[in-house]
Amino acid sequence: MNTNLVPSPVFRQLSVLLDTPDLADLGPQRRPGTLSLDELQRRIDQMLDNTALPAHAQELIRGTLLLWHDHLDAAHSIAQEVEDADGSLLHAIMHRREPDYSNSKYWFRRAGKHPCYLVIAGRISALLGPERKGLMSRLTRGGDWDPFAFVDHCQEAAQSGSKYAGKESLQEIQRIEFDSFLEYLCL
Fold first, then answer.
1. Is 2 exposed, middle or buried (0-12, 13-18, 19+ CB in 10 A)?
2. Hey, which residues does 145 pair with through a beta bridge?
3. Residue 1 pLDDT > 90, yes or no?
């Protein structure tokens, strides 16, 4: 799969809602600079109003953006209603941030080998480059994204607290995960 696809106009429009002053935390913490639930819902409604995306994709887009803005309960409600690989992926990411790591892995298993994993792996490779080869090889087995290894790294970061040196890299990788999933949903 090409990791440099030309983003759809819908993705370009919606992706501005991922542009927050700070990267999302690996846990459930609310950040300053995120939109309130009501304001975010209003903006999402406006942006999705004139799209031809199916209702299923629109709900998952909504859940993804809600989760990025730290509205875990609202995102969870959406993920619970979508019983396919896409809903399972959103569900898995939400539980990872909750943090409920074993439940996250359960939902990643249900998501299976998701189509956006190759894109995530390619973009992570570009982010980490050769100087972070060790982390890269742990997160991408056989050139494919390993969400279970990422859950393990997030758990290690949470348990280590401020002693964990790579937290910002993990947050950047999480951003790539959100970007790639949102882009996939907008196809």
1. exposed
2. 140
3. no
